[in-house]
Amino acid sequence: MSLRSFIDKIKPNFEKGGKYAKLQSTFDAFESFLYVPKKVTTHGSQIRDAVDLKRIMSVVIIALVPALLFGMWNVGFQHARSLGQVDTWTFWQMFGFGALKVMPIVVVSYVVGLGIEFIAAQMRGHEVNEGFLVSGMLIPLIMPVDAPLWMVAVSTAFAVIFGKEVFGGTGMNIFNPALLARAFMFFAYPSKISGDFVWIAGLTGGDGVVDGFSGATPLAIAKSNLVDKLPSAYDMFMGYIPGSIGETSTLAILIGAAILIFTGIGNWKIMLSVFAGGAVMGLIFNVIGINPYMELPFYYHFIMGGFAFGAVFMATDPVTAAQTERGKWIYGFLVGLMAVLIRVFNPAYPEGMMLSILLLNTFAPLIDHFVVESNIKRRLKRAKVKA
Amino acid sequence: MSNVYKITKGLDIRMVGKAETVVTKAPLAVAYAIKPADFQGLVPKLLVKVGDKVKAGTAVMFDKYNHNIVFASPVSGEVTAINRGERRLLLEVVITPDAEQQYESFEVGDLLSITREQVVEKLLVSGCWPFIKQRPYGIIANPNTTPKGIFISCFDSSPLAPDYDILLRGEEEHFYKGIEVLKKLTDGKVHLGVNAKYSSPVFEKCTGVEINKFQGAHPAGNVGTQISRISPINKGEIVWTIDPQHVAAIGRLAATGRYDVQKTVAAVGSEVKKPRYYKVIQGASIKNLLEGGVSSDKSVRFVSGSVLSGTKISSEGFIGFYDNMLAVIPEGDQYEFFGWALPGLDKFSFSKSFLSWLTPSKEYVLNTNYHGGERAFVMSDVYGKVFPFDIYPVYLLKAILAEDIDAMEKLGIYEVVEEDFALCEFVDPSKIEIQAIVRKGLNLMIKEMN
Questions:
Q1: So what's the ipTM on this one?
Q2: Could you tell me if residue A133 is inside a domain?
Q3: Which of A8, A266, B360, B416 is the most buried (most CB within 10 A)?
Q4: What percent of chain A shows pLDDT beyond 70?
């Protein structure tokens, strides 16, 4: 029996009145995953673009793959570094070690998030939305590698339930769910999830770590105004530094950005304006220059921490970003500006990108409101001029 | 000198099955129909019953809310069926034609030397009035109003669209005469929109009108796009629009006193064996038009009008009142295994997420499948890329869904009709019925304003 006829055979069980009607959304999600539905148009546009949200989300995931693979290797590399064994570990040893560390986080994120999505869809009687396919990949990439799995699970659950489902699901949310998961973890477990130990696998335990080895991220180093101890710009650009799993390699992120921009799925205006905002704030600090952190060349901000990752994958979320074209420029610019501002001024938390994007998520509707208002005013003015 | 307007937002959908430049005179169709659904918001009242004899130009129904607007039979013959749908909704008045056509004769006199009121009166009586549509709302023009301008798009940029120079071939004089009549109806100008890419001698030779050239992808040929560039509609303003073939029909009325609605339509699409032009009479059944000319090995969709905003009809259905093309495309009623994950060399998409971007000039066979399930608005910036209006489409759509009349008005509902949103609907990865939403909004506005 072919797969299709098997599905057709069991389908009635999941439809209204069937034995497993409670699992209709779940069934539908799996069916439409395997087969694009045969539903045809009846009115309006008789033809439809081949693209759907599944396709779009898959492209974003493909764009995340370079960062993910690099992140896996870097987890192994940083671990070897902490043991003082960089020269003896092979490439595959590092990658394999990292993969074993990262995969459980990915699995936990997807299982928890998708589980909640399926339940929420069933409760509403909707089809399961594909939005979490991307969030579920973003969450592991912005986690410190030593984050306990239960924390990942709790954070993900919080983000999906309170960040998304209570607002009505994908498309209705105000905050970027992945960032919300990260913010929840940061604020709920501050003692366990910050400091210099969580960024490198095994450092918390401390077994076999080289004496005096510091797992501090470049951001933490800069924060302490020890800028001469920063890794080279080349190392930071390539990503040979401690940090959240997917955020370290600016190069891998730029490959993802290229994919998103080329396919027309990621918004280049937001990406560009985030970098512009960061550069402007960096240059302003250069002028003020009252401490070594302020004197850092502006582009250091792009290659340290999660700035690039946030600019490419987080700020561009089409749901939580500004939705008007002019609004996107303003929104992106402010995201970059605030990120650098928070980094340099906020003593409690070195990474400003997460807070900056969440803050601007809040303001995006306001920015849009003003842009739309100006459109309305233009229309009214046009009417008066004519009369 | 004419103005050139560049339309930078839009999309040309490359489909297989454009019409060859061959014009065939179609035989008399087995039947002709007048379909109230072709006229938005119309509540029709019948004037005929089954068995009545009619001539070309005999009124068969009128508008319940404006008795002067009558709808005429396109041919002479016998009313053979009055088809109704749910709740006795009038669907079709079907007329079986006589072999020898007879025409009502209207004493139009010299349309150019009488007053505006008299011209309106003649157009109403002869059944020509429904040719003229108005914006806002995209409904039949209200004869008691005077528009600030009349806009005629002289090319169609939608996929598989016919070439209007071919549609009007041999009808040039009637077209010019029709334009002269229309000039009497407005205090403003009559605007012709032509394609900047090639010259259209028929239209460019027209005198006493403003000719504007439009350059760019679809919807550059939509009259709504052209209005928005030349003279966007403000609250309280009215513009009229009319199709060039209907202008020629008005010209024929002026010349002969007959309601003569012959037109040329293009039969197009991947499932038409020999896509070409046919000379038909408005409202013709397609039953014997394409006999044997359609691929028969799979199920197909017949669309009267463009594939982006036309109407689904049956294989024995009738060509719509305002339509200049008949498209036949495959139905998409099959499951596709991992369709969303395939490389997609053969899939047309506005996004470059399928490998079809490797072949930028290839023509595609598009079917009627949704290619995905309906979702909430997610990709908020895709719509604006194919929507060349100074309007925020998602905001307007959300205002309509919220039935917020005030917001709809502020956000520009007067400037648009559903076809302006057709491309938004096409590219929408969330598969939302955008044109239906826009029509709902327009109907709400009509109700609110009256």
A1: 0.90
A2: no
A3: B416
A4: 98
* Residue A38: both structure tokens together: 């045969």
Taking the CA of residue B246 and the nearest CA in chain A, the distance in Å comes to 23
Residue B426: list chain A partners with CB under 8 A.
45, 47-49
Q: List the one residue out of A149, A62, A255, A47 whose CA is nearest residue B306.
A: A47
> What band does A34 get if pLDDT is binned at 50, 70 and 90?
confident
Residue B4 confidence (pLDDT):
92
- Determine the pLDDT at residue A352: 87
Give CA–CA dist A86/A138, Å, rounded.
Answer: 28
What strands lie across the sheet with B32-34, from one edge to the other?
A: B32-34, B90-97, B77-84, B53-54
Give residue for tokens 């030593």.
A146
Query: Which residue is closest to B327 within chain A, CA to CA?
Result: A46
**A237 within some domain:** no
Q: What is the DSSP string of B90-159?
A: EEEEEEEEPSS--B-------TTTS-HHHHHHHHHHTT-GGG-EEETTTEEPPTT---SEEEEE----ST
Number of domains in chain A: 2
Can you give the residue range of the structural domain that contains A20?
Answer: 3-34
Side chain identity at B353, as an amino acid letter? S
What is the C-alpha to C-alpha distance for residues A362 and A322, in angstroms, rounded to an integer?
10
Residue A371 lies in a domain: yes
Distance between CA atoms of residues A159 and A183, nearest Å: 9
CA distance B77 to chain A (A): 31
> What is the mean pLDDT of the segment spanning A115-120?
92
The residue behind tokens 């694009």 is: A36
Cβ atoms within 10 Å, residue B385? 18
Going by the DSSP 8-state scheme, the letter that residue B388 receives in this structure is -
Task: For residue A5, give the chain B residue with the closest CA.
Answer: B335
- Average of per-residue pLDDT across B53-77: 95
Give the distance from residue B356's alpha carbon to the nearest chain A alpha carbon, in angstroms: 11
Chain A residue numbers with beta carbons less than 8 Å from the beta carbon of B159 are: 47
Task: Give the integer Cα–Cα distance in Å for A121 and A169.
Answer: 8
Residue B81: closest CA among B118, B116, B119, B35: B35
Give me the pLDDT at residue A385, please. Answer: 64
Q: Enumerate the residues of chain B whose CB falls inside 8 A of the CB of residue A377.
A: none
B310 contact A CB<8A: yes
3-state secondary structure of B301: strand
Q: CA of A48, closest CA in chain B: separation in Å?
A: 5
| Confidence check: pLDDT of A194 > 80 | no
Domain membership flag for residue A123:
no
In angstroms, the CA B400 to CA B443 distance is 10
Residue written as tokens 């071919």? B166
Q: What is the mean pLDDT of chain A?
A: 89
